[in-house]
Design brief:
425 residues; 13 helices; two-stranded antiparallel ribbon; seven-stranded antiparallel beta sheet; alpha+beta; 39% helix; single chain
Length: 425
Amino acid sequence: MRARVLAAATAVTLLTTGVPAPAAAVPATTPAALAAPATAPCPRLPAPKVSRPPRPTPPATTPEQAAVGGEALAGTGLVMPPGSPAPPAVTATTWLVADLDTGAVLGACGAHVPGTPASTQKLLLAATMLSRLDPEQVAVATRADLDIEPGSSAVGLLVGGRYSVATLWLGLLLQSGNDAANMLARLGAGSAQAGVAEMNEQARRLGAGQTHAVTPSGLDGPGQFTSAYDLALIARACFADAAFRRYALTERTQIPAQPALKKGGFQIQNENQLIYRYPGALGGKTGFTELARHSYVGAAQRDGRRLVVTLLGAEARPVRGWQQGAQLLDWGFRLPRDASVGRLVEPGERDAEAAEPRQAAAAEPTRTASPPWRGPAGTALRRIGDGDWRVIVPVAGLLALTVGGAAAVLAARRGRARRRGRRRA
């Protein structure tokens, strides 16, 4: 009986002092808890072994980054709509196929796995600078513009040569000119490195959070990475520009003569074989370095539908990069129009999402803290509220004695009242 009274009194004490109930144990977050859903292995073509420089360690991909565009894209394996035919086997390490118009991702292999972009990074330069530069502007090439890695791809610009911005874009997209990339970055931002900073800002705005540019051309640099998903975001921004679409489909152009330098002009041709050999091709961009291996971005339209493919880390044998892209485009066009495993986020969408919690925190009313308990009684109450049983037990005992004493007094009074009543009867 006393135990029950003690327990009841303790409960009353705890309730009146406002002690919260103990929180249920919350399991610690572990990498396994954040792991992406299981996916099938990526179909791979056997590729010859090649020697390459040591691969740099990519930055860690956070669970939030891995899930951009949909939880299904967070894995490292193959993800495709249920019931779809198997995609072709390729040598690319990662790839993605998406709809340029709706933004639906039709399928991917390691969509958010970091990779090295090579010259597909020139698409980020185009997405950043195309709208800033007047295509008819004529500029003079400097020695710094021609400071590129010996043996790397170049248009053949000359120090002191005069070139229109339109010519530089054609040199960039047809011939993958690293000299043209340096010059366009300088014209758009004041210097090549300032242009790189603008490129990184544009990548952030587009939602390409895994993309970090170090050079405007895509020549390898420490810390330079992207992903198949990010490349699709960047390509979508490029193909939304009519000038880019026109440049990307140009088969050949003339680099003008430089009379003041006593140098003649010459012709360059588009290196992207997709525009010559794939019906409905819209263009794209090739890329290669010893470190990155082959990268590729290509787009095409069929029956009113426009798809884009991105791939990284491919080998040219037994199938060249653009051919692997073409096979993946064929696969994508065979899927239903409503097929999807995720989506390409819209420009500015991730910035807006990041701003929402800050706005909500700013709008939340300030709560006034309760005044602290004071005096000996207040100290005792605070210790009870903190769960100090050295105070709780004596207080509970005192309450039990008080309640018991009061009950005994009441019982005695009732007994006397009954006896008086019997005497009156």
